[in-house]
Structures are given as structure tokens and as C-alpha cells.
Design goal:
Radius of gyration: 39 Å
Shape: elongated
Number of helices: 0
Number of strands: 38
Mean pLDDT: 89
Oligomer: single chain
Structural class: mainly beta
Distance between the termini: 43 Å
Strand order of the largest sheet: 4-11-9-6-7
Helix content: under 10%
Strand content: over 45%
């Protein structure tokens, strides 16, 4: 507040000045005014008695995205990105925006969106960018795209990027086991049906039995219906099909249970084939799946005689190659198994396994029964899996995440398969968008395992915590130069999240 008196002497025509102190604060304010008024003129009159003084805020204006990361399901329809005007509200300002694809793709996951946000003088209202989302029926991993601000006019940009994480809302229904076997005296065949993926929304699927060599009425009871899952329900459902136990010796018979008419979901494995084994006299492999290491020497397949043991019976057998090859992985074997009248002892088939030094994936071959005489065949096929006994090393996780104030991160390296002999592997960090020294400490060296050692090894990388606001950054840790082993997973990516 300022007041006083201005005086002119006789003959004085010089201008006089009134000084009003202006207070400079740090608050964001709109345009403000006050007046200076003249009054009480002595020996004079007032031509203009008031002057309007306008105070313009000197604090800067900026626009910024509120919430630089947002997550949403793909069935949400759209995602809203909020942009605020901060600081001074004096003057008209504007900023451009545009969506940018990443693992989420335009058209298939979201609609490309761009435009301009504008504020008039004194406008402080929040603006919204709306990006339409595409809801498909494909099961997908977590995907991302971004919305970016650019080209500020009359202002500056604070947080310029919003990263949008799009979660898949799809689910699928599948039979858990596509092949199931039951004896005819089991009472019921139980078919389990699972819901995979996201459990958003209510879904349903129909089911029905379909005859094959097993006949409805004489071997099983025709069964049909609908399975229902409520919103959020991920429980496994079961289909129960009654089986008929007769006294007739029969060969292996099958029928199927089929899923159809999915509502609110899709179908993965749609058919379960049910094998019905006769419970009268029959021959079967005891184990339909057997696993051996390639250094085991031999695969031993047991074959049992079930049911009635009246009369002499026999069955032929032979090996059949699959991913395991006769001659390089096992020795071709065939012959005939014989049971005398009253004989119920299991018989064995011996197949030599060949131990090589080549690093191989899991391989298998089968031993198949055929040509039953005086009996029938139940489980006719034994699948023999051969596990490689050589050694591999791998990075346990391909993706890690850590905040930049996390000090350090441990990368786990595993030794798989056989543990015979000493092995080693080199490692090193490789810069990506994260830079050595400024974001993490360059790290390299050699990991060693002694003979028989299967312990996990740890690579520790120190993280640099700076005060700079940054986007999501990454660097890689890579394995190389394996000695006495091989590498299956060579690279782990480490994402550094900004904590400023």
C-alpha cells in the first residue's frame, strides 16, 4: 500500500512520480490488477483520477503428461492419457501429440492417434488424449505402445511420454489330456477341461461324446452338456462319461469327447481320445512312457499279462524310430513274447541304448506290440525317451528388472544335463540404451564348474543411481566362449527403471 501528497510550486510544471513496490512471489497466478487513485486536489482540478496497474505472473508455463505409465486390458475400449498445464496460465499455448507403436502394433492392437492440445489465455483445464484399443481373440503377451508430446508453442514440456501397457483379456478352453486310457471296469472316464489365459468375463463351451471303435451303449454311455466359467473363474472342470464293463474279450477300443460352440472364449485342444482297455485276458506294456539317460546301457520294457490266464498266448514286438534314430541312438530290436497256460509273469524287452558324445535334445523311439495270439492287446506302445547326458549352461532368466537405486543385480547362470568334467564360460555386459559408467558398471569374467559341480553361479552387476529423470533403459549380459560345454541361453536383458 502506497499513499502521499504530490506538490507543485508556483510556476512548476515538471512531472511527478508515484513509486509502488511490487512483491515478487513464486506462486502460479493469473493476471492481477490494482489502481492508483488521485484525490483532494488543492488549487487545481483532476483530469484523470485513476490509473490501472496490471501484474503479469513471471513464472513459466509447461504442459506435462500425468502418469507416465498406465496399464489397461485390451477390452477396455480406449485408454485416456491426461495432460495438464502447469505454471503460468497467461497466454494461449499448444502442444502436439501422437501414438507410437512398440510391441503393441497399430491397427491390430490400437488405433494410431495424433493431434494438437490447445489452451486459451487463463485456461488451466486438464486435457485428455483418447486412444482406441483393439480387442482381438488372439492370446498375446503383455504389449506396450506410447503417447508422446512434441512441438510446444508458448510453453515447455515436462513429462513428454506415457507408456501404455496392454494386457490380454482372452482365454481359451482345452482338454488337459488329448489321450486318456481306462480299463472298461473303471466305472467312468474323467476328462479334465482347463481355462487358459486371462479369466476376464463369463465363458462356456459345449461337449459331446463321439463313437469310434468303442460303441455308445455297449462300451460307454453317450454324454453331452455345457461347461461354464464365471468371471474370474479359472478352475478346471470335468466331464464324466460312464463306461460299460462286459465279459467279452475285445481289442483296444476308442471314442472321443469333443468341445464345440465356445462363447466368450476360444478352443485350444478340442478333442480327448479315450482308449478303453478290455479287462479280460490281454497283454500290455506296463509303462507307456519310460525315460533313460543315453549312458544307461539298455532300455527295459516290461510287458504284463492281465485278466484271465487260461491258455497259451503270445505277442510280437518291434522298435520304431522317431526322433531317436536306430543305429546312432539305440539298436533295432524285435521278437516274440510267449506265455504258457496259467503263466501270469511279466516279460521284458531289452533294447540297447547307444551313448554318444553329441549334445542332443530329448529324443524318443517306441516299442510296439502287435499280432496277439490267444489274447488281446491293451497298451500296445511304450515310448522311450532318451535324455542327453552331456552338459549345457544357460542364463536362468532372459529378462530382469531393477530400479536404478537398487545398487546391484544378480544374474543366475545354471549348469544343466550331465555334470561330468570341469567346464567354464565367459561373460560380459553389453550396453543398450543404458550406458556403462553412467547407468551401470561394466562387468566381465569367467564362470567355472568343477567335475560334478551343478551349483548355480552368480554374475553381479552394479547399478548407478543418478539424479536424472530418464526413460526405461536396458543393457545385456552375454555368455560366450564355452569350454567343455555348450550354451543354450546366451543373453539376459536387464531393464533399469528410473526412480527420479
Amino acid at each position: 500500500p502506497t499513499m502521499g501528497t504530490l506538490n507543485w510550486a508556483s510556476g512548476d510544471s515538471t512531472d511527478k512520480t508515484i513509486n509502488v513496490p511490487i512483491l515478487n512471489d513464486s506462486n502460479y497466478e493469473t493476471l492481477e490488477t490494482f489502481t492508483v487513485e488521485l484525490s483532494n486536489a488543492v488549487n487545481s482540478s483532476l483530469n484523470t483520477n485513476s490509473s490501472l496497474v496490471t501484474i503479469v505472473d513471471d513464472n513459466d508455463a509447461s504442459v506435462s503428461i500425468i502418469g507416465t505409465q498406465t496399464s489397461i486390458y485390451e477390452n477396455a475400449g480406449s485408454v485416456n492419457i491426461t495432460v495438464s498445464r502447469l505454471g503460468s496460465s497467461v497466454g494461449a499455448i499448444s502442444v502436439d501429440y501422437a501414438s507410437v507403436a512398440n510391441t503393441a502394433l497399430t491397427a491390430s492392437d490400437f488405433t494410431a492417434t495424433s493431434g494438437t492440445l490447445s489452451w486459451i489465455d487463463a485456461d488451466t483445464a486438464t486435457k485428455t488424449i483418447i486412444v482406441p484399443l483393439s480387442d482381438d481373440t488372439t492370446q498375446e503377451n503383455l504389449e506396450t505402445f506410447s503417447v508422446q508430446l512434441s512441438n510446444p508453442i508458448g510453453t515447455s514440456i515436462g513429462d513428454a511420454t506415457a507408456t501404455v501397457y496392454v494386457y490380454d483379456d482372452d482365454s481359451s478352453i482345452r482338454v488337459l489330456n488329448t489321450i486318456i486310457g481306462y480299463r472298461e471296469d473303471a466305472g467312468n472316464a474323467i476328462i479334465s477341461v482347463a481355462r487358459d489365459g486371462k479369466n476376464v468375463g463369463a465363458v462356456s463351451v459345449d461337449y459331446t461324446t463321439v463313437a469310434n471303435t468303442a460303441i455308445a451303449g455297449s462300451d460307454y454311455t453317450t454324454t453331452s452338456g455345457t461347461l461354464n466359467w464365471s468371471d474370474g473363474d479359472a478352475a478346471t472342470k470335468t466331464i464324466i462319461v460312464p463306461l460299460s464293463d462286459d465279459t467279452t474279450q475285445e481289442n483296444l477300443e476308442t471314442f472321443s469327447v469333443q468341445l464345440s460352440n465356445p462363447i466368450g472364449t476360444s478352443i485350444g485342444d478340442a478333442t480327448a481320445t479315450v482308449y478303453v482297455y478290455d479287462d479280460d485276458s490281454s497283454i500290455r506294456v506296463v509303462n507307456t512312457i519310460i525315460g533313460y539317460r543315453e549312458n544307461a546301457g539298455n532300455a527295459i520294457i516290461s510287458v504284463a499279462r492281465d485278466g484271465k490266464n487260461v491258455g497259451a498266448v503270445s505277442v510280437d514286438y518291434t522298435t520304431v524310430a522317431n526322433t531317436a534314430i536306430a543305429g546312432s541312438d539305440y539298436t533295432t530290436t524285435s521278437g516274440t513274447l510267449n506265455w504258457s497256460d496259467g503263466d501270469a509273469t511279466p516279460k521284458t524287452i531289452t533294447v540297447p541304448i547307444i551313448n554318444d558324445i553329441t549334445l542332443e535334445s530329448l529324443e524318443n523311439f517306441t516299442v510296439q506290440l502287435s499280432n496277439p495270439i490267444g489274447t488281446s492287446i491293451g497298451d500296445a506302445i511304450a515310448t522311450i525317451y532318451i535324455y542327453n547326458d552331456d552338459s549345457t549352461v544357460r542364463l536362468y532368466n532372459t529378462v530382469y528388472g531393477i530400479a536404478e537405486n537398487g545398487t546391484s543385480i544378480n544374474i543366475i547362470v545354471k549348469r544343466d544335463a550331465h555334470r561330468i568334467g570341469a567346464i567354464s564360460v565367459d561373460y560380459t555386459t553389453v550396453a543398450g540404451t543404458a550406458l556403462a559408467a553412467s547407468d551401470y558398471t561394466t562387468t566381465s569374467g569367467t564362470l567355472n564348474w568343477s567335475d560334478g559341480d551343478s551349483t548355480d553361479k552368480i554374475i553381479t552387476v552394479n547399478i548407478t543411481n543418478d539424479g536424472t529423470a530418464e526413460s526405461l533403459e536396458y543393457f545385456d549380459v552375454q555368455l560366450s566362449n564355452p569350454i567343455g560345454t555348450s550354451i543354450t541361453t546366451a543373453t539376459s536383458r536387464v531393464y533399469i527403471y528410473n526412480d527420479d
